[in-house]
Write a structure and sequence with these properties.
Helices cover 29% and strands 21% of the residues. By secondary structure, it is an alpha/beta fold. The protein has one domain: TIM Barrel, CATH 3.20.20. The strands form two sheets. Strands 1, 2, 3, 4, 5, 14, 15, 16 and 17 form a nine-stranded mixed sheet that branches. An eight-stranded parallel sheet has the order 6-7-8-9-10-11-12-13. Helix 3 links the parallel strand 8 and strand 9. It starts with 10 loop residues before the first strand and ends with a helix.
Length: 482
């Protein structure tokens, strides 16, 4: 990736309401050399540029820890790469993301990591990027020794799929051995928790009965399969003494074991995604194959689960809202499963509209405080994934990843206006209030007044700290702060 410029113009973000996970006050932020160097009221400093944030919210840039950009599967490849995907993220107020570096069966971990570094070098992201490693094979390609070395490369989280039998699903032996390595190396284990064996049986039975429509995607992945796998992963993590992060929690059956684990003080964390907060299973049963747009995994659930998820977010049973951005065009990609729901590529878009939806329906409707909104989309992510305090907050010495948010700006969400390459939007037609006005990545203006003003390559690869450790400011940040 293009290295950051040695110096950038100094900026003063003036008179905004600064909101972090812990604070809420009106003040100024002075930025030099990519870094926050002063915070105060009515700062008397000379800046090359002043951004008037009066009447606006000023928050740390959001971090998305769950994206699939230019991700290849057996069927197809997601339609956003690290150019379009990061541009779309920036327009939504996301200033860093962590994508899944997929080990294909038979491939070594160094080879997988090298291929993903090539992707970001070629695409030149406009926001900062980190990687998880997705472990799919410890027999033919991947070795425990190579897995143990990845944290030295700044890849400090291991993702495993307990679903997708015959493709990327791992058995419990692979899962447990990876947990043991994570305990030794200080990595965080992430799991896609569904019982892939049971789902495989249900899918085959449905197809044998001629049940091919998109709605059977959900009916063959009942919430009990998610609850069982979540509990199994938690218990295995206890034995291995490994921290565990459960991705895209969708239902009360999966919330329950996480709630119990957190009440017991175990190192277990969970995320959900906007699609589970706002979309229910009825969308799958639409005429004309429209339901295929909503084939993602876990599937949309019964509407009653939405209030369980909101409650879990407000009580810290769930710690993060990510997107699981996995963009697949309806025409030409989703339609691969026109006659067989099991061949519809799984995934949905969402990288640009996470904050829009969560702010409007969470903050404005009283489900979340502003501080909790920041915590769920930025600070908790930074703390869990080795980015804090360099990212995830606004503090002297931290990266100047900042969003100036207009709380009164009205927006109609649409595929016609988003910046992803995908040909539909999960939240098509939703009207929201609240959107970014200016987005900064390490002090560089990326988006301003609905225009992309950054050059390709503004983003950097982030080497993350180990689980529970701090990512201290860079040398440039220390120099600027001193």
């Amino acid at each position: 990736m293009t290295p950051s410029m040695p110096m950038r113009e100094s900026l003063l973000v003036k008179g905004g309401r600064i909101v972090t996970a812990a604070d809420d006050y009106v003040g100024d932020i002075f930025i030099e050399n990519e870094t926050v160097t002063l915070i105060g009221e009515s700062l008397d400093v000379q800046a090359e540029r002043v951004i008037d944030a009066s009447g606006k919210l000023v928050m740390p840039g959001a971090i998305d820890p769950h994206t699939h950009l230019e991700a290849q599967s057996v069927l197809t490849t997601t339609c956003d790469d690290f150019t379009s995907g990061t541009v779309s993220a920036a327009f939504g107020g996301t200033t860093s993301l962590i994508d899944f570096c997929m080990q294909t069966p038979g491939e070594s971990f160094p080879s997988a990591l090298a291929s993903y570094h090539e992707k970001i070098e070629r695409c030149e992201p406009v926001i900062d990027v980190g990687f998880h490693i997705a472990v799919t094979d410890l027999r033919e390609g991947g070795t425990l020794e190579d897995l143990a070395r990845l944290p030295d490369e700044g890849v400090t989280s291991y993702k495993l799929f307990m679903a997708y039998k015959g493709a990327v699903m791992v058995d419990d032996e692979t899962l447990f051995k990876t947990m043991q390595i994570a305990t030794e190396t200080g990595a965080l284990v992430m799991v896609h928790a569904e019982n892939g064996d049971a789902i495989d049986v249900l899918v085959k039975q449905a197809l044998a009965e001629g049940k091919t429509e998109p709605k059977y995607h959900a009916l063959t992945r009942p919430p009990e399969t998610e609850g069982e796998a979540t509990n199994r992963a938690i218990q295995l993590a206890r034995v291995a003494r490994s921290p565990l992060y459960v991705v895209h929690v969708s239902c009360k059956e999966a919330i329950a074991p996480i709630a119990r684990a957190r009440a017991e003080g175990w190192q277990v964390f969970g995320e959900t995604c906007p699609q589970y907060l706002f979309i229910d299973e009825t969308v799958l049963d639409q005429p004309g194959f429209e339901g295929a747009k909503y084939v993602f995994t876990p599937p949309p659930r019964a509407q009653e689960n939405q209030e369980h998820l909101w409650q879990a977010l407000s009580t810290d049973v769930l710690s993060v809202v990510s997107t699981d951005h996995c963009p697949l065009n309806w025409k030409g990609q989703k339609t691969l499963g026109m006659d067989d729901f099991s061949k519809i590529p799984n995934g949905g878009p969402g990288i640009e509209n996470r904050l829009h939806m969560l702010y409007h329906h969470g903050v404005r409707e009283g489900r979340l405080t502003l501080n909790r909104f920041v915590e769920l989309t930025s600070t908790n992510v930074a703390k869990l994934f080795g980015l804090y305090p360099r990212k995830g907050t606004i503090a002297v010495g931290s990266d100047a990843d900042i969003v100036v948010w207009d709380p009164a700006k009205r927006l109609t969400i649409s595929a016609a206006t988003h910046h992803s390459q995908v040909d539909y939007n999960l939240f098509e037609g939703c009207e929201v209030v609240g959107a970014p006005e200016v987005v900064l990545v390490r002090g560089q203006v990326i988006v301003e007044n609905d225009e992309l003003v950054a050059q390709p390559g503004a983003g950097e690869f982030i080497k993350r700290a180990r689980f529970g450790e701090r990512l201290e400011p860079t040398s440039r940040a220390v120099a600027a702060a001193s």
